[in-house]
Design a protein that fits this description.
Structural class: mainly beta
Order of helices and strands: EEEEEEEEEEEEEEEEEEEEEEEE
Strand content: 25-35%
Number of domains: 2
Distance between the termini: 34 Å
Radius of gyration: 17 Å
Largest sheet: 9 strands, mixed
Strand order of the largest sheet: 1-4-7-10-13-16-19-21-22
Shape: globular
CATH class of the largest domain: Mainly Beta
Number of helices: 0
Number of strands: 24
Length: 192
């Protein structure tokens, strides 16, 4: 980083024109950031990350090696994307019958969520704030805030605190003491 470029891009990476990158962001080896992408401040993109056309990535996002964030996916602030996790933007792709980007199904990964290594997120779904998608899980529907999702297809197997600790004993975090309340099958943080 220097005064001219307030972010770092490894010499092996390629940044298209019309891309916005926030200060303090680090883009490592063999990445490609495509036209119209917006990447926030203080992000880290590991080796071999592809950010497709018109994708928005929030602030303080960490994207591990071998992740492609395809057009139609939006990543909010403080999200962690584990190594080789996968996003889609078309449920029924055909090479001979392309639908065009205007028909991509939107996917939203909300603030503070984690998508584990090798997990797959099918398009058209929202991953809730601070949700935790386990390694290798396949997400086929919307995910609630603070939900822990594991398996194929992914099913909710618990709840997780903002700090990342699994909630094992009621709705008080053993690690940071945050308190939660379950209302209409949704977890609400009542003490920040």
């Amino acid at each position: 980083m220097n005064d001219i470029d307030p972010y770092f891009v490894h010499e092996s990476s390629y940044i298209d024109e019309d891309v916005k990158i926030g200060s303090g962001t680090k883009i490592w080896c063999f990445c490609h950031i495509q036209k119209g992408a917006i990447i926030g401040s203080n992000c880290v993109l590991g080796q071999n990350v592809n950010i497709s056309n018109r994708v928005t990535v929030g602030n303080r996002v960490k994207i591990q090696n071998n992740v492609s964030v395809y057009e139609g996916v939006e990543i909010e602030d403080d999200v962690f994307l584990g190594p080789s996790c996968v996003f889609t933007n078309d449920l029924t792709p055909r090479t001979a019958y392309p639908k065009g980007s205007e028909n991509y199904r939107k996917t939203l990964v909300k603030r503070g969520a984690t998508v584990g290594a090798n997990a797959t997120v099918l398009c058209g779904n929202t991953i809730g704030s601070y949700a935790l998608i386990g390694a290798g899980a396949v997400v086929t529907g919307d995910v609630l805030d603070y939900a822990v999702m594991t398996g194929v297809p992914a099913k909710q197997t618990g709840w997780v605190c903002v700090c990342g600790n699994l909630l094992k004993h009621g709705f008080v975090c053993d690690c940071c003491s945050r308190k939660y309340h379950l209302k209409a099958h949704r977890l609400i943080c009542i003490e920040e």
